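Reviewer 2 asked us to include a model.

Predict the structure of this chain.
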Amino acid sequence: MEISELAVLRWLHIIAMVYWLGGEWGVFQTSYNVINRRLSMEERRRHMETAYRIDILARSGIILLLPLGLHMGHLWNVQPFGGIWIAVIWILGLSWLALCWSAFIFRETDRGIALTKIDESIRFILIPTLFLAAASSLAGYGPFAGDEGQRWFSAKVLVYSLTLIIGLKLRFIMREWTTLFRILAKGPDAKVEATLDKSIRFGRRIAYVYWILIATVAFFGAVKPF
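Predicted model (structure tokens):
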């Protein structure tokens, strides 16, 4: 039996999607103990560490979905960037992934915060690029295919770009954790506790929208409705 390139990419795409969705749920649940003032600081830091270790899989999944999706899109003839462009897409995608992991490894240091900010800056470029390309394609102006039965790809890219916006906000919140816990390590601080509580509660609210968008991305990829 011959295993096709598309089949392998689809398998990897499913794994990345599972880690993305499951990881976000894990971070969501762990955050309850991060802000639980009845726990000791040591215990809360352990929960924060657990959240980071879960979140890196979600971050890896969301990054890998982009080169995987664009690669499969070319094999499905719904996006025109093949050949050397596929190699460039993978090099950029894996470089972004390496940056993300570097920020995770050094997360408790100033270097980690600086790397995280670079990771975030990439999204400020990527989000409008993907959004405009997808919206333009849905309007019939390309670059992605716009015929009947092909527009699902542009819709998927469009929703994916929206998930990156929410993901960016959640990245801000998690980066804030590190800064706030440095202050709390010096002693109790009611103002910092209130800020931490407020940011995480806001993050939980937008997480519900995040999951709906993630499910929509998966729906467009699996069903290809239009």
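The CA atoms of residues 67 and 90 lie 6 Å apart. The chain has a mean pLDDT of 91. We have added this to the supplementary material.
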